[in-house]
Amino acid sequence: MSQNLSNRIATLAESATLAMAAKAREYKQKGIEIISLSLGEPDFKTPKHIQEGAKHAIDEGKYFSYPPVNGYLDLRQAICNKLERDNHLKYSPENIVVSNGAKQSIANVFFSLLNPGDEVIVYTPYWVSYTAMIHLAEGKPVFIKGSLENDFKATADQLKDAITGKTRAIIFSSPCNPTGAVFTREDFEAMASVLKAYPEIFVIADEIYEYINYTDEHVSFASVDGMMDRTITVNGFAKGFAMTGWRVGYIAAPSWIAKGCNKMQGQITSANCSISQRAAYTALTEDLGPTYKMKEAYLKRRAMVYELLSDIPGLKVNMPKGAFYFFPDVSAYFGKSDGNNTIDNASELCLYLLDHARVSLVTGEAFGDPNCLRLSYAASEEDLREALSRIKEVLSKLN
Ligand code: GLU
After folding, report:
1. Quick check: CB of 208 below 6 Å from ligand 1?
2. Could you tell me which CATH class the domain 7-45+290-395 is placed in?
3. Alpha carbon of 270 to those of 98, 100, 108, 136, 263: distances in Å?
4. Where, residue-wise, is CATH 3.90.1150.10 in the chain?
5. Which end of the chain has fewer CB atoms < 10 Å from its terminal CB, N or C?
6. Cα–Cα distance between 390 and 334 in angstroms, integer?
7. Which pLDDT does position 63 carry in this prediction?
8. Ligand 1, atom nearest to 208 Cα
9. Hey, whose CA ends up nearest to atom 4 of ligand 1?
10. Which CATH fold would you assign to the domain 66-285?
11. Which tens digit of pLDDT belongs to each residue from 218-275?
12. Whose Cα sits closest to atom 10 in ligand 1?
């Protein structure tokens, strides 16, 4: 029997973040101790009261059947209340679609908006799965790249230059995975002033790291004057509430786009898990204290990791303004050797550090910047210290 996968899947890149996490797990199973800084996943447990919310929902016995495709009405209303409270955005439940993680939300949007050959401008460095999803939806990613010197933020001029007659959408994350960059209101206003001349272009604003933002203000692109009707705000519960495994994300979008996503989701997954939705409802309607405490912990670790990374010769590092990643430029090590192995690029350095320092990171190539590596500091201070000391030691042997 032929074992040919469809071209669509055969040519699909594997998620580099998940692949690196699987590799680290494999090493661990073999008894090799690895410090895993590859997967962007809070090391905290889901706050107790959210766990209780889910348990209560099970005990009530009311949530064992299919939920509405776009999510329970009270959850969608709670999301609207949150958007008004935190983001100054007025939506009604018909604008909201709850999905299996922000990842599915983004996929729904691409599949709902893109026709073959449509271009999506991708702010680069970008999160790995954007490009894979655009390809799956038969669109074409067009990259505009920020550099370490400008905090990895592509400019409004770059946006303007990248627009063609085929541009259908733009996508970015702020706070950004993998760089930690945060767009300010001024940055967004400059983008908006370019977009005003192109009313047919949509904006996909990925705000999954909203609650891990160290600047004074988290700005939602949809709140910029004139942008709400063309913006799809993506958010979820994984990062801010330490709920990665519960898989709850959502969009807030013009209702016709929400309807498209609803239709797509109705054919593919029916809906998001009922009990996870009850947990998400608890997360939004009860105490946000644990969320702020986690942010404080990340902030402390950011300072520590910045200091330790800055102490490693050759690395160029910027200070991330949000999320829980560093994205150091490691290109000073390209061409160097330990006598047996020569490091030619970031992917090789990443594997070399896994083998020699027993620390897993993700190559910047997966995020569109082949000079960098991504390090997640959603790990204990002890592990972070140990990992960085091992990285420093291993890099010092490359000449
Ligand atoms: N978003 C996280 C990351 O970038 C989780 C893994 C994934 O879905 O890619 O590491």
Report:
1. no
2. alpha beta
3. 11, 10, 13, 20, 9
4. 7-45+290-395
5. N
6. 19
7. 96
8. 1
9. 40
10. Aspartate Aminotransferase; domain 2 (3.40.640)
11. 999 999 999 999 999 999 999 999 999 999 999 999 999 999 999 999 999 999 999 9
12. 40
